[in-house]
Write a structure and sequence with these properties.
Elements lengths: L2 E3 L4 E5 L2 E4 H23 L4 H27 L1 H4 L16 H19 L3 H26 L13 E3 L15 H25 L4 H17 L7 E3 L2 E2 H38 L1
Parallel strand pairs: 1-4
Antiparallel strand pairs: 2-3, 5-6
Length: 273
Amino acid sequence: MPFIVDIDPVAFSLVGVPVRWYGLILVVAAAVAIFLTVREARRRGIVDAIVWDAVIWVAIAALVGGRTLYVLQNELGSLAEHPAHFLMVWMGGLSFYGGLVGALIALVVFARRRGLPLLRVLDVAAPGAAIGQAIGHIGCLIGGDSYGIPTSVPWAVIYRNTNAMAPQGVPLHPTQAYEAILLAALFAGLWLGRHRLERLGEGVLASAYLLGLAVIRFGLFYLRDEPSVLLGLKTAQWIGLGIAILAISLFVAARRNERAISTPSLRLEASQS
């Protein structure tokens, strides 16, 4: 029997401004991600102050990137009439990949400005990003954002609240829940296996995250109610292919860097013996 979702996406109003569950859950997701990132950064020799500075960069870049891609894909036509709507991120409407690309660019620039090893920075950020994104999709489920195609599976969801973004009264694939569960599993794999992965070289953990993310979203977008744009694939699937290529390139760079570091050590040991 389908699950009924009849929750008002607006949790409450604050001085006349509606505060949505999406925004509240986004705050929780960010808090969990930051907590784990700080913990991992300490283990990898990066002090708290640097992490908090990076959080500001990443948060701004992710919001701008996520909102920009969402508006370009869904609301470009109405933006001329209501340009201020671009800033209303608390209303929902953030592109997952737009936020990811924005965050990656911010980390690259931040690492260069601070003289930090980029591959290490990416590794530190990867587990927190995975669990933060998993939690964030709970907000999408409540508000009806990123909904799936109609289905007859017994675990389908039916939206009844008129403020939800999903169609009313239609059994839909709960793609938001699928993604939350799969991203949580990805986080568990990264977190539990991070010591083993980092022994393969700095950057391997981040490449595993990006590749896992790309695979998850590529598959799930077959269940998303969005039009194909080229060769039967949707925009997010093409972006996912690009992310997968980036992940593989990052893995190759990480392994090459690790071999470059270990080879002189082996030569030194051989000469000493």
